[in-house]
Amino acid sequence: MREMMYGDAIAAAIIEEMQRDESVIFYGQNMAMTDRDPMLKRFGRSRVRIAPISETAETGIAIGAALTGLRPIVELWMSEFMLVAFDQIINEAPRFRYMSGGRVKVPVVFKAGYGFAAGWAGQHSNCLYHSMMGVPGLKVVVPSTPADAKGLLAASIRDDNPVVYLHSYMLTLERGEVPDGEFLIPLGAADVKRTGNDVTIVAIGWMVKKALAAAEQLKEEGISAEVIDPRTLAPLDVNTIVSSVSKTGRLVLVDQAPRHSSAAAVIAAEVSEHGFEYLRAPVRMVTALDTPVPYSTPLENYVLPNEGKIVQAVRSILANQAVAA
Amino acid sequence: MAAKRRWEKDRLVWIYQQMVRIREFEEAVKRTFIEHPQVIRGHAHLGDGAEATIVGSLFTRKPSDMVMPSYRCHGYPIVLGTPLKQMMAEIYGRKDGLCRGFGGSMHLADPERHFPGTSGIIGQSIAHATGAAVSAQIKHTDQIVYCFFGDGASKQGAFYESLNMAAIWKLPIIYILENNQYQAYTHFSLEDANAMAGEPLSKKAAAFSMPGRTVDGTDPVAVAEAVGKAARRARAGKGPSLIESKFYRLSAHGNVITVPPLPTQFPEHEAIAVYGNRAEFEEWRAKDPIGQFRARLIEQGTMAEGDAESILQSARDEVAEAVRFALDSPLPAPEEALNYVYA
Ligand SMILES: Cc1ncc(C[n+]2csc(CCOP(=O)(O)OP(=O)(O)O)c2C)c(N)n1
Ligand SMILES: [Mg+2]
Asked: How far off is chain B from A243, nearest CA to CA, in Å?
């Protein structure tokens, strides 16, 4: 165990997997520019490359390389830049295995930061996982702690499927204990980040941190909140969520994405089908409002979910229960 | 004859004045990170070094022509006459900002001055500008489009797709490839096939059978001549041209990317910070387009030293006033965020 920053844990996973497996290659824009680059020094220009601003080719080349035996990690920096190449990610990478009747595979990791809610305005602050988590054949990973960041990335690199690995820009400098050496977290296993009895809060990425802070505040009001991080949105661990709801009877979903393009909306639907009998209050979604992300601070704060909005939502469904009783 | 010379002189001084206004504005943006931390959010990018390219290109435009720059967009509206107060207020996220605090530094827009907006997604605006040219062509407005984008953007699919379409549709557009020699932290020689072969980036024009030319982007008159020729061609219905204007970005790509509340400001230029090549930076700083043009105008008697000083002083006053205005302007009311999602 070692204390590490989230960003460094990601780098550690890449280095360890590249050391372990020669077929792993790593490229992207604005990296490996000089011979002093530590990744270049370690792995050489053959496996670590600089790419121009050419997302369609960057991602498509990764698919071709993966079809023919390599395991590329493409550094895309910001998840929005994937949109330039959305065909490759949505309608190419995840289709080959199925269309070939299982004869080929595409082991590639599309890595990008997401949700830079720090005044980056309309085109750089988005959460796009909703549009990827419903694509059969594509896995979507959103870690919320340094340890998860490392374990899930190592597992993503070893996975035989295309994986979109989205790390929260807002968590880059977060510190936490990270296991040394080989450390894998299976894709598809949610994690209970805090146990509680009165309400289940399911939060994604950066919002896990906000949900934990809200839970701490709620504790002072005598409310015991359980916080669950799905960690991967595809596959989605519905069981862990439903079993928590069977205990608490209440569900608040926290997602930085706009309401109608949130993972929260999908989880709400799953719980309404598989956990309806346990619910003692309506499900509440604490999401971004259905607007693009604005630049100015008060506008951005208004649009995005935060600790206060989570606390309010929890209070409101507990109050709702009291009225109904 | 005397009248003509007089006219030329005014125009040259006008060019110098616009260049200075851009530089002073950008210096103020940069200083804001130190003098008023946290006032500018996200990522801001400056046009210092690009002044000759911006002003030289726009020198040739008619008032109704359209201007579509990249996300590094402060310089262009300054030339178009957008009030600096509104621009600075936007960059500070204020209610009186050009875009009411919704867009910030990367997303200025002033449609009344034929500047419809920008994209932060590299390369995509090349297609938007091409669409503006379709609009001009279909409506027979006699407008042409000045499309500015970076060396980095010329590697994006939208560049190739757009130039081909502009060529086959003979669109009234000038593609001005601003080769400031860096794509964020990457020197262009590391990522461009033409550059690696020792060729100018304007060679790309040959793929679309359109004129391509590389020009000294530190000299506004050279830029104006090259762009002016392309403008005449576009206006005559003969189609697009590609101009590579080669200069040097004088500040770092942008302010340091950090997670708030950590402070951020402009770091050292990548030549030094990434490549350890101070000599390159110094060489190009010596070719600062503003210093060069100032010296030239004074030397050829077009402008007196005193005129240069008063141009600088009035630009400083104008910018100081813009900063004051922006700082005094209130932040927008939170609920405003619900506006403008749909038209
Ligand atoms: C599609 C896309 N990929 C990557 C980025 C990240 N990015 C922002 S600015 C930039 C460099 C652009 O370089 P260039 O086109 O030369 O313009 P300059 O910044 O030099 O004006 C990059 C890669 C982006 N905004 N959009
Ligand atoms: Mg550039």
From this structure: 35
Catalytic residues of A: 55, 124
A-B contacts at Cβ under 8 angstroms: 131
Measure the CA–CA gap between A120 and A142, rounded to whole angstroms: 20
The half-sphere exposure of B35 on its side-chain side, counting CA atoms within 13 A, is 11
pTM of the predicted model as reported, rounded to 2 decimal places: 0.97
ipTM: 0.96
Structural domain of residue B118, as residue ranges? 2-257+264-328
CA angle B184, B190, B194 (to 5 degrees): 110
Measured CA to CA in angstroms, residue B289 lies from A23, B20, B69 at distances of 48, 10, 20
**Residue range B237-254: mean pLDDT, rounded:** 98
User: To 5 degrees, how large is the angle CA A196–CA A199–CA A201?
Assistant: 90
Q: Which of A84, A120, A295 has its CB closest to that of B101? A: A295
Q: How far apart are CA B66 and CA B61, in angstroms?
A: 9
Whether B6 has a pLDDT exceeding 90, the answer reads no
Assigned fold of A191-318? Rossmann fold (3.40.50)
Q: What is the DSSP letter of A123?
A: G
Kindly give the number of the ligand 1 atom that is closest to the alpha carbon of B121: 26
Q: What share of chain A is helix, strand, coil (3-state, %, to 5)?
A: 45, 20, 35
Domain count, chain B: 1
**How far is the CA of B109 from the CAs of A121, A278, B82, B157, B210, in angstroms?**
14, 52, 10, 24, 29
